[in-house]
Write a structure and sequence with these properties.
With about 300 residues, the protein is of the alpha/beta class. Helices cover about 40% and strands about 15% of the residues. The protein has one domain: Aldolase class I (TIM Barrel). The chain has 12 helices and 8 strands. The strands form 2 sheets. It has a 6-stranded parallel sheet. A two-stranded parallel ribbon has the order 1-8. Helix 2 crosses helix 3 and helix 8 packs parallel to helix 9. Bound molecules: zinc ion (ZN).
């Protein structure tokens, strides 16, 4: 490996939102609060707590405001929520979020299916969300879905992705998250998109939100690191899924990502054994094994002479 990789990366934990919303088991507010508090105790400083969307669409997130009211906030940590529109943004701000992420898709058909708006209507909503969030003196960032492929339309033109992102950057987005919603991204595409963003929007940081539906999640992280991306989303245990590919894995697994980065000498400030303990507890809560691999194989640095994991 000849490239200079980032010495430190920022990981946003999205399991409580992106992970849990694809699970059949709906956790109670108590269980979510305990999960988020234990995630805070690992050193994670960015946690996506939930979403403010219509409860009938995503019943797993119906109690997000209650969860926000009851979590213990670690010093220096940011607890965020995603919203599709101004109604969600008002509810989020009322609930005391630290940051708001407005989400929309870069493909018309996926945006209609997901938030029942055209991209233009979502951008109008984003402008109003940005105004509300700025007035509340909170950070605002944008999460773009289907950047690396749409389940209905296939490839999404890079010009359209950059057009949407530029509108959001003009609205004052602090960062833009590139979502591989369907796990259709591959390393070469990740680098092409990241480099195009750097050229078009050099002052707006990007965050990669990989999904591993086709197994390319950590390869895509490495590809992104090689072109200087140092912000990633991941989900504890690798929980979640893909609504367009039943049974496929969801987000990349936080503890697998942290393990790989630490072995590479890249800092995260996250305590890996504590994160693995969170994943173990999550298995009990959900009643099934999580897809993560480090939870099964153990931490390399903890392997004894016998080769037995000592996690
Ligand atoms: Zn996702």
């Amino acid at each position: 490996m000849t490239q200079t990789l980032p010495a430190r990366v920022s990981i946003r934990e999205v399991g409580p939102r992106d992970g849990l919303q694809h699970e059949d088991v709906i956790l109670s507010a108590d269980q979510k609060v305990a999960l988020i508090n234990s995630l805070s105790a690992t050193g994670l400083r960015l946690i996506e707590v939930g979403s403010f969307v219509r409860a009938q669409h995503v019943p797993q997130m119906a109690d997000t405001a209650e969860v926000f009211a009851r979590i213990t906030r670690a010093a220096g940590a940011t607890y965020s929520a995603i919203v599709p529109n101004t109604t969600g943004a008002r509810r989020a701000l009322d609930a005391g979020v630290d940051a708001v992420q407005v989400f929309l898709s870069t493909s018309e058909s996926h945006n209609q299916s997901n938030v029942h708006m055209s991209i233009a209507e979502s951008l109008d909503q984003a402008a109003d969300v940005a105004a509300l969030v700025r007035a509340a003196d909170k950070p605002f960032d944008a999460v773009l879905s289907t950047v690396f492929g749409c389940p209905f339309e296939g490839d999404v033109p890079l010009d359209r992705i950059l057009m949407v992102a530029t509108r959001l950057a003009d609205l004052g987005a602090d960062q833009i998250t590139l979502g591989d919603t369907t796990g259709m991204g591959h390393p070469r595409m990740v680098q092409q998109v990241a480099l195009a963003f750097r050229e078009q929007l050099p002052r707006t940081p990007i965050r990669l939100h990989p999904h591993s539906a086709r197994g390319a999640g950590l390869a895509n992280v490495l590809a992104a690191l090689e072109v200087g991306v140092d912000r990633f989303d991941a989900s504890v245990g690798g929980i979640g899924g893909c609504p367009f590919a039943p049974g496929a894995p969801g987000n990349i697994c936080s503890e697998d990502l942290v393990h790989m980065l630490h072995e590479m000498g890249i800092a995260t400030d996250i305590r890996l054994p504590a994160l693995i303990a969170c994943a173990r507890n999550l298995e009990l809560l959900l009643g099934h094994e999580v897809p993560g691999q480090t939870i099964k194989a153990g931490i390399c640095g903890h392997l004894g002479a016998s080769g037995e994991p000592r996690v």
